[in-house]
Automatic annotation (TrEMBL):
<dbReference type="InterPro" id="IPR012340">
    <property type="entry name" value="NA-bd_OB-fold"/>
</dbReference>
<feature type="binding site">
    <location>
        <position position="243"/>
    </location>
    <ligand>
        <name>S-adenosyl-L-methionine</name>
    </ligand>
</feature>
<feature type="binding site">
    <location>
        <position position="264"/>
    </location>
    <ligand>
        <name>S-adenosyl-L-methionine</name>
    </ligand>
</feature>
<dbReference type="Pfam" id="PF01938">
    <property type="entry name" value="TRAM"/>
</dbReference>
<comment type="similarity">
    <text>Belongs to the class I-like SAM-binding methyltransferase superfamily. RNA M5U methyltransferase family.</text>
</comment>
<keyword id="KW-0808">Transferase</keyword>
<keyword id="KW-0949">S-adenosyl-L-methionine</keyword>
<feature type="active site" description="Nucleophile">
    <location>
        <position position="337"/>
    </location>
</feature>
<dbReference type="InterPro" id="IPR010280">
    <property type="entry name" value="U5_MeTrfase_fam"/>
</dbReference>
<dbReference type="GO" id="GO:0008173">
    <property type="term" value="F:RNA methyltransferase activity"/>
</dbReference>
<feature type="binding site">
    <location>
        <position position="211"/>
    </location>
    <ligand>
        <name>S-adenosyl-L-methionine</name>
    </ligand>
</feature>
<dbReference type="GO" id="GO:0006396">
    <property type="term" value="P:RNA processing"/>
</dbReference>
<keyword id="KW-0489">Methyltransferase</keyword>
<dbReference type="GO" id="GO:0032259">
    <property type="term" value="P:methylation"/>
</dbReference>
<dbReference type="InterPro" id="IPR029063">
    <property type="entry name" value="SAM-dependent_MTases_sf"/>
</dbReference>
<feature type="domain" description="TRAM">
    <location>
        <begin position="1"/>
        <end position="52"/>
    </location>
</feature>
<dbReference type="Pfam" id="PF05958">
    <property type="entry name" value="tRNA_U5-meth_tr"/>
</dbReference>
Amino acid sequence: MIIIAEKMVAGGSCLAKIDGKAVFVPGLLPGERADIEIIRDKKDYAFARVLELIEASEHRITAECPLFGRCGGCSLQMADYGYQLELKKKMLEDIFQRAGVTTAEPIEVVSGDPFGYRSRFQFHRMTAGVGLKESDSDTPVMLADCPIAARPIREGLKDGTIAKRAAERNSETRFHVFSDGDALWQEDADEDCEVTLCGRKIGFDVRGFFQSNLPVFQKLACRLNEDFCRWGTPEDGSFLDFYAGVGTFSVLLSDHFSSCTLVEHNKRALHQAKKNLEPYSGKSRFCSCSDDAWPSRAESRKQYDSALIDPPRQGMSKTALQWFASSKIPVLRYVSCDPVTLARDASRLQEAGYRLIETTLYDFYPHTAHMEACGIFIR
């Protein structure tokens, strides 16, 4: 059947209507006309795939990567990069609107180089090399190159270094690699990584999570430092770093507070955070607990002048969200890797009297539908 794509929605599929029923079609851009086939039919909506593109968008281009469409790493390389940013901004605006969230200022978009940016990968060891999973499949497709990868990773794919090290030392199918500058770390061969952001060194386990787009992450760090000057804490203020991970934000923002409490449930990450914050040990406290357990801890009854919340994709737990909603902390900074859960949590904070005064979309993952955003809430 023939459809016209209306708009792109969270996740990167385009929405179309057939007899009033919503149909989600990946691989299309808004305004494109295509012949589609329904592959999964539900009561109120359906999923489809493109059989033939009949009328293409003016923003459609030839993808840089020859594996685009097979490899599941990218989903938007068929669109010029400027248009990708427009689509993401519109998606974020729509998500906020549906959640009833009011933004005081227009959403700003911060981006970087759309190629050669990605410093972190989880590759799969294959018989003759390494690969990434195919789109909508658990089967990996072998990579000889990856144009979005940072230079050391791209070179390691081309010359076979990454595959050779994986074949020799990796006991699991999946393994992690990370690079910064000229350095390349690989799981099993290496354990600890160390990057420099805003002139400060931060270490972490190569198997653990760390932001994949270091140039854009540095822009976020710089912006947060600027924001502390506008919406900051007193010179002797206290700071709450919630979902602290390895303490990255506490290290980067350490000039702006006299005491800091880091909350993290992952003991391995918290151990690394203690090492990263050794230069600031006199003003750092560490709380090993889950977000649900936080309200029962003595540290939760202290007064905080500001907080930074950096939750996983599912957002804050209901218990943690309720605590923050009633906390009366003057300034909350919420760094989100899922705008849907950000909007959900923002709606609750808004009901509790917080105002979302600034929202910035950070394009950490060009050529994908993935979005990260930072919202500043005050009361």
